[in-house]
Amino acid sequence: MLVLSGLLVLTSVASLTTGASGASLWKALTQLVQGEEISLRERVILFDIRLPRLIMGILVGAALAVSGAVMQGLFRNPLADPGLVGVGAGAGLGAISAIVLGSFLPLGMQASLGYFMVPAAAFVGGWVSTIVLYRIATHRGRTSVAVMLLGGIALGALTGALSGILIYMADDSQLRDLTFWGLGSLAGATWDKIWLAAPLIMLALAATPFLARSLNALALGEAPAAHLGIPVQRMKNISILSVAAAVGAAVAASGGIGFIGIVVPHLLRLLIGPDHRFLLPNAALLGAVLLLAADMISRTIIAPAELPIGIVTATLGGPFFLWILLRNRSLLDL
């Protein structure tokens, strides 16, 4: 945790300093030390563009990584990711609906929602799909993990079909918006979005440490965990709601960013073991570090243009993940 905390500080400083504009954090600090006033351009770039982007990257990276660790522990499956609760598919359908059908809303509603229309629709869509999937998987007060897994596959197929219909209806400009939203980006980070997303993500992350011992016991199976005194059903409820809140807010704020939720828990299990008391807080730190690093690459590799961050995470994360698996096949019993 000390190493990852130090890496997070270094990555945050680099994120504030890196960019196509040439604005420098060190230059601004030097001006402050010398008693000079920071120029308006430097203030806008550092405090209104880069700092919100930095904070949003930390929140989204931590939310995705911790949610992935919780889902893998809940499903007792290393291939599980946050999308299994249906929040990703529902958020995608909500965002696509807002982009394609938003022009049919009354002008007053469009003006009042403004650029919050797509994030709000994504969040609502994610929560609705999670509630539907939870109701499907819950019978007589007990939630079946197997039914949730299969129901999530079916719900993903259904939302994919509905999304396909809307994409078929979209015009060229809407298709471009859909493509960039689906690939994810932190470019739209603002203080307003942070005030909306941060409380949900912080509350969800604050609840996960209390799940650590229960997730450790659940590795033995639901029946042994219950015999050990673990309130299995309550733990399932808290886990699903926490993941839905964190991922729903993260996807609504940044679009679809993949690979963080599945790679980070795997990497940490190889480094520090499967104990969720240590896995969850370290996942938050490493998820934030990796997403900030990917964001710096996305905005500098083809500067002054910007590459969607989802492309960077998949391009770098995929081969790295395969390398880890190939090196540890015997350890992972593959």
Structural overview:
The structure is a single chain. The chain is built from 16 helices and two strands. The protein is mainly α. It has a single domain, classed as ABC transporter involved in vitamin B12 uptake, BtuC (Orthogonal Bundle). A hairpin with a 2-residue loop joins strand 1 and strand 2. Helix 3 runs antiparallel to helix 12 and helix 4 packs parallel to helix 7. The mean pLDDT is 83.
Detail the topology: elements first, then pairings.
Layout (H helix, E strand, L loop, with lengths): L1 H16 L7 H9 L6 H36 L11 H15 L5 H7 L3 H21 E2 L2 E2 L1 H25 L2 H12 L7 H17 L4 H7 L3 H6 L4 H23 L5 H13 L3 H25 L8 H19 L1 H4 L2
Antiparallel strand pairs: 1-2
